């Protein structure tokens, strides 16, 4: 096999292995190859340097491809957009035309897709309510 054929087949294999969302992002970024990187960066609103810094903070990562940073940034934006829209539609956002923290916390708790965020987005609780529940737990432990 020539180098070009080998490279082409490995790209096809990688595209096959990637999830649908990432493949879609790859197609979006490769739509117009004559456009420069500045045009691609304009479609992203999150700071790429911050995403790169977060990715490099992992001890397992030694180097990061620019395409990987771009795709990770775009995927993060799409995820945040999906979370916000789900929270807005299922919460009180429609009536008030706003999105609150409690809407995000409720979505994280009630929606299986976002359930992994419950530790990051816990429901707010008043201090007096927390103290009451803490006292109840201590009383239950004392009963045993």
From TrEMBL:
Biological processes annotated in GO: chromatin remodeling; DNA-templated DNA replication
Taxonomic superkingdom: Eukaryota
Protein name as it appears in the record: Chromatin accessibility complex protein 1
Q: Where is the Transcription factor CBF/NF-Y/archaeal histone domain?
A: 45-86
Q: Name one GO molecular function term.
A: nucleotidyltransferase activity
Q: Where does it sit, as one GO cellular component term? A: CHRAC
Write down the Gene3D superfamilies for this protein, in alphabetical order.
Answer: Histone, subunit A
PANTHER family in the record, alphabetically? CHROMATIN ACCESSIBILITY COMPLEX PROTEIN 1, HISTONE-LIKE TRANSCRIPTION FACTOR CCAAT-RELATED
Subunit structure, interactors included = Heterodimer with POLE3; binds to DNA. Component of the CHRAC ISWI chromatin remodeling complex at least composed of SMARCA5/SNF2H, BAZ1A/ACF1, CHRAC1 and POLE3; the complex preferentially binds DNA through the CHRAC1-POLE3 heterodimer and possesses ATP-dependent nucleosome-remodeling activity. Within the complex, the heterodimer with POLE3 interacts with SMARCA5/SNF2H; the interaction is direct and enhances nucleosome sliding activity by the SMARCA5/SNF2H and BAZ1A/ACF1 interaction. Within the complex, the heterodimer with POLE3 interacts with BAZ1A/ACF1; the interactions are direct.
Species name for this entry? Scomber scombrus
Output the CDD domains linked to this UniProt entry. Answer: HFD_CHRAC1-like
Function noted in UniProt: Forms a complex with DNA polymerase epsilon subunit POLE3 and binds naked DNA, which is then incorporated into chromatin, aided by the nucleosome remodeling activity of ISWI/SNF2H and ACF1. Does not enhance nucleosome sliding activity of the ACF-5 ISWI chromatin remodeling complex.
Q: Where in the cell is it found?
A: Nucleus
SUPFAM superfamilies listed in its UniProt record: Histone-fold
Q: Which UniProt keywords apply?
A: Acetylation, Coiled coil, DNA-binding, Nucleotidyltransferase, Nucleus, Phosphoprotein, Transferase
């Amino acid at each position: 096999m020539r180098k070009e054929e080998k490279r082409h087949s490995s790209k096809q294999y990688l595209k096959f292995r990637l999830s649908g969302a990432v493949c879609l992002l790859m197609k979006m970024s490769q739509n117009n190859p004559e456009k420069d990187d500045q045009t691609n960066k304009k479609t992203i609103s999150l700071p790429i340097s911050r995403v790169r810094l977060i990715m490099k903070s992992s001890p397992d990562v030694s180097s990061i491809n620019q395409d990987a940073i771009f795709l990770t940034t775009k995927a993060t934006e799409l995820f945040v957009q999906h979370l916000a829209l789900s929270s807005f539609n299922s919460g009180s956002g429609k009536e008030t035309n706003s999105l609150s923290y409690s809407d995000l916390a409720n979505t994280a708790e009630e929606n299986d897709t976002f359930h992994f965020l419950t530790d990051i987005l816990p429901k707010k609780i008043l201090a007096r309510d927390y103290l009451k529940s803490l006292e109840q737990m201590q009383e239950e432990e004392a009963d045993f």
